[in-house]
Amino acid sequence: MSEAVILEAVRTPYARRGGAYRGTRPDALLAFALRGLVDRAGFDPARLEDVVTGAVTQTGEQGANIGRLAVLLAGFPAEVPAVSLNRMCGSGQQAVHFAAQGVQAGDQAYAVGCGVESMTRTPMFSDIGGGFETLNPELLGRVGLIHQGKSAERIAERWDLTRADLDAYSAESHRRAAASRALHAELLPTPGQDAGGEALTLTHDEGVRDAVSPEKMAALKPAFRPDGVVTAANASQISDGAAVVLVGDRDAALADGLRPRARFRARVAVGDDPVLQLMGVIPATRRALDRSGLTLADLDWIEINEAFASVVLGWARELGADLERVNPWGGAIAHGHPLGASGAGLTAKMLAGLEATGGTLGLQVMCIGHGMATATVIERV
Predict the structure, then answer these.
(1) Is the pTM for the entire model greater than 0.85?
(2) Do residues 368 and 274 lie in contact, with contact meaning Cβ atoms separated by under 8 Å?
(3) Which band of pLDDT confidence, cut at 50, 70 and 90, is reported for residue 1?
(4) Which of 97, 174, 335, 337 is catalytic?
(5) In the annotation, is 114 catalytic?
(6) DSSP 306
(7) Of 97, 174, 184, 367, which residue is the catalytic one?
(8) Is residue 242 within 8 Å of 114, Cβ to Cβ?
(9) Is 54 helix (H, G, I), strand (E, B) or coil?
(10) Active-site option among 89, 97, 184, 335
(11) DSSP at 143
(12) Is 89 assigned a catalytic role?
């Protein structure tokens, strides 16, 4: 069986909703990232045998198989195929998994797993024509589906997390993200526009705050319950961005003069309680560690998507995780969460972090709506 390895991984800086990428179509943003990947890797895109693309809100500018459209916009040969998928917040990570599985099965020598989301130009839920009220009533009744924010409140209750706990964690996410701003080797400087409409090149994540006011954070009203603890400040930012990961067969890559940077120790997707819905990260982590033969103590770097601070803190309390090794460069509360892009983006960020710190083993785990989660363990080579 072939061994799938990561050869290159890049992402655009993430922009705020209505920010630097408000004038950039998502297919063009992904095309820019695809070109940036092959240019940085010195890789001939004609060698690609598939481009697997995560995108959550697949309508409008993100419809019509945005992966294929971005391949064509990037100027790649027409012979390079692409497919788009939606595993909600885990879409980009699932795209990397599928690319790696295709390579490992011997179906492809080289494939891309990538993701994109413009939450500015293609708002969340626009693919279903509204919010939860548009879903099948049986899902809301018998199954009991609720908004993720309400699940985040239930998580805080279950793990005895206070508003002070969530806000303190969120402030630390911004502090870490600001402190590491110069370290992100995975970032592609990306064209955009400033508030006045003038052209600029975005070189860092737009949502990161150099200083967070605890007083202003504490003054925010709860978003989902009048007496709740979840606010806009302790949840992920709505963002725009794209990310791309090049995966190849190790022997083919070495023969072609390419440098493998990491291999996969585990790839996992799980289903979990659709009401609590965001804590699939716990069984996903356990399964990924079991399959890789590792423990949390073996890991040098952990990326858990900060959809809500309560998710990370509940996961850490349940598993006894050392938060010093969790999101060392901050997370989505600070840098944003462009839904379909985040999975591939966290892979790129984690690999850059491991290389910057001399680490070897990394775990990436993401909560997913309707009660799912994805997890990946990589090892630098």
Answers:
(1) yes
(2) no
(3) confident
(4) 337
(5) no
(6) -
(7) 367
(8) yes
(9) strand
(10) 89
(11) I
(12) yes
